[in-house]
Amino acid sequence: MNELRGFAGFTTRDLDRLAMAHDASHYLLKPRAVVAPVDAAEVGRIMASAASVGTPLVFRSGGTSLSGQAVTDGLLVDVRKHFRSVDVLDDGARVRVGPGATVRSVNARLSAYGRKLGPDPASEGACTIGGVVANNSSGMACGTEFNTYRTLESLVMVLPSGTVIDTANPDADKQLHEQEPGLHEGLLRLRRRIISNPDSVRTIDRMFAMKNTMGYGLNSFLDFEEPVKILEHLMIGSEGTLGFIAQATFHTIESHPYAATGLMTFNSLNGAASALPELVACGLATVELMDAASLAVAQRQAGTPASLAGLEIHRHAALLVEHQAPSAEELLEKQQRSQALFDSLDLAAPFELSTDAKKRSALWHIRKGLYTTVAGSRPAGTNALLEDIAVPVPALAETCEQLLGLFDRHHYQDSVIFGHAKDGNIHFMLTERFDDPSQLDRYEAFTEDMVDLVLGNQGTLKAEHGTGRIMAPFVARQYGPELYDVMCTIKRLADPQRLLNPGVVLSEEPRSYLDHLKTAPVVEEEVDRCVECGYCEPVCPSKDLTMTPRQRIAIRREIAAAEQEGNHPLAERLRKDYEYDGVQTCAADGMCQGACPVLINTGDLVRRLRAENHNAVADKGWTAAARHWGAVTAVGSLGLSAAKAMPAAAVQAVTAAGRVLLGAENVPLYSDALPRGGRKRTAAQGIGAGESTGTTADAVYFPACIGAMFGPADDGRGNVGTGVTQAFLNLAGRAGVELIVPRDIGNLCCGTPWKSKGFIDGYDVMRDRVLPALWEASDHGRLPVICDASSCTEGLEALRDAASSPDALAEYSDLKFIDSVQFAKERLMPHLDVSRRLESLALHPTCSSTRLGINGDFTAIAASLADNVVVPPSWGCCAYAGDRGLLHPELTDSATAAQAAEVNELRRSAYASTNRTCELGMTRATGHEYRHILELLDEATSPRKGTP
Length: 948
What we know:
Oligomer: single chain
Mean pLDDT: 93
Low-confidence stretches: 689-694
Radius of gyration: 29 Å
Largest sheet: 6 strands, antiparallel
Strand content: 5-15%
């Protein structure tokens, strides 16, 4: 690998190699090195260098592919970090995208134009454009009409020789002929060969009339004449075996924000299948099939609608159907046109289409929760396999019945069938343990039977997920020797050394799909549940600095595997590097849990590891701080005020020296972006305070201690602002709402500092002080408790849920915590008039406001204050995480880089968030003063007439 050392991001460090070895598939190959090129030209040089020494390579972006097409034992080329560009063209009619951008991030930018991408994969939050093109992704609604192949306009592709071709260039075909004459002529020969063979044409027409990602897209030879256009469309679905996709330009489609959803329950699969033709004809956007096993699994899910929960399931099947439209009027028209058809169906349970957001969400949870339920409850040490096939729609019911027979024959329990019924495309799940020879034999026998079943029904072995390694040995069986030879010729023409992703798409070894199977050593609860799907990665604030949640879990598995194999030096090297990459730079913000299909919060794992690694001195110090928290916050406030009065460089030098002596995990780095110290919290701050029972109060107010530690931001007019505490009190008084503040508030805290750092004893001390105080102040849970920092509101909920005994937990479970943003929207704003509006307002939703579900309230308040409200498309956790942004400022710098660039494209009248430390992080990142949204609301409102 010495020839590659000069390229960007080159590393052979064990931690980096093994973290990137894991993707969403059930295959595991460990790269010898990783590179992270910065542009297409560097990719070309990397491919040329790799070819000169015969090193195989693979391109990795999102790593969400399920078929083994994103792993290698050669060189892994990370093309996610530097290839995330999104350029909206022609008012959203087209979009030009880098391969590292996720589908969700592209659609976020298109949403302002009422447009979206055609492909709509379920993994849209994590899968990237590179994989979408390389796998010819589709999804629930797009079918074959709006998939990648049909909506692509042009590509920038890098060939194995290093040649870069932009197919949007009018001279692209001429360039291909001049720079790659053998490839250009070879494609013309293959086209003549195909179109002159009627059997080949019939097979291609039949295969690509349905969703089909097996082998190469031979329909390119029938749809196009120019070699450059043929090659462009062969790249779609080629899974990185023919070249690198450096950029893709798409035609977009109209987005349909209005929807009506319903669940049709049939007495049998045949009944559901028989209804499909008419249901598709009536214009339904999605028709999702669930078999009886799926419905039985769904009944175990929380929130399942009563109509399904009470059904006694035998051989039932269900279709989740949805109408979509660009307007409410068009949606109603579609519903009315199809109602007669719906009324004519023989259903096993009542059916209705609903536009209610909560009901629709509950219905979609049935479908999307299948994977969560089955994968999350699988035995430790097993892998969850999600497979997909497609057959002609008339053969769908029989194929499902035969698959159920295979599950029984091979003793697969709890396997479920679901999928995109209108396309004849179904998915099924298996759980398998590949370190057990008998189960491996079972898997091989099942696969052989499944291949015979699907091909016997004139189907395709891969509809959406790509051929990968899993189906590469069966491509010849699906297409026949003639067309298989055409595919082999395509590979030889484009990649004569066969160095791009060898073993993927095409394989001469009939049992190669059984090689390099992933085993899952039993480690710990969070690790064992992980299916390594990668859905967590885009929301992780440390993804561009060190590691992602998937990688943190993968390395825990690698450490366990190394220990089991007796490779203790490797395990020790991994542990050493993991301390910074895996533990210290994790924000523990919990955003990964919201994205995870099996609901893992990797922050819980990291907090436990921090607790295990603490020394006794630090533990005692933080426990003492919990006992005297009022004094600690006062000292911290005085220290910040003193530092503000001194030259910033001098204070920064002192803290930098302390970090060298005592460690970066123990001493924060001072920044001149930090404010002066805050104001002391007292119970007298409450409106109508003094009655500890709260008999006349409307709510308990819990001002967060971060307001006592950090002073308020400037008000934008050169003055020190009021701060959120005073702003909330002003708003409550203006709205006629009476508040009380708990006794001894100066010594109370939500416990988050101790929890995030893993200081369990100190956390217990704070919990045992705070919960009784709030229990008393709230009149035993009668009054809601309002907190003015979203992270602290979430922390209080966690504190309540961590009550030390079952009796205490039952008692304190009646405590109700509401964030001040939600309380202001629901209780205060109806009594307030906005008298001063802003021209524009930029918002930073926080990880806690997201997890609390109050972003809608946040943006609603903002909309009442400003004519133009902007949430940056790339917003995410700022990673300030209490003091984590002070201990590791590089973490916040990395996490906020993209968002800060978007914020600074235009100057706004004001900038707002919901949490003081997040405001500090965004202020440092952007250079603009961020304030709590309630401070802006306070300055802009007056009492509404008639308010008491």
